[in-house]
Amino acid sequence: MTIRDIHLLGSPALRARAKEIPAVDGPIQQLVDDLFETMDAAKGIGIAANQIGVTDRVAVIAVEEDRFAMVNPVIVSVSGKAKAEEGCLSIPEVYGEVSRPERVVLEAQDREGKPYRRELEGLVARAVQHEIDHLDGILFLDHLSMLKRQRALARFKKEHRGQGVIRKVTPPEDGHRSL
Ligand SMILES: [Zn+2]
What we know:
By secondary structure, the chain is α+β, with helices and mostly antiparallel strands. Helices cover 24% and strands 28% of the residues.
């Protein structure tokens, strides 16, 4: 397992639509393991392959004790609506309130390629939606109003001027856990 560099806002990988995985093989399992390790090192609660520059439909989640991999994840139904603050490992120090469905039904494959279906709600449902957005090249900023998005972008640019689009992973000091 390897801690990978995280791509930041501005990296083309974050705007790419990740490719379906035809079969879960050794390299995909390695990718899952690297995502878990990178997420844990960065103190995230989820991370998608795009965020380490790999455009494959793979992401992992860790919300409290609930840790799972998602290969080719699809949300098959949603209900309710909830608003909560989100952050992103690829957009450090920037947070915004995002409105999303409160409950989702997720279908995906696990690290062994076995299909599963889960009904999720609350933070884990939010994390799953945030990561699947990543696989479609969508960022949480895209869900904000124009004004809030512009403010968030200005803050990111100010904090990260001249730092490039690759972040070596070191745990954040403020204790925030991001997606
Ligand atoms: Zn994110």
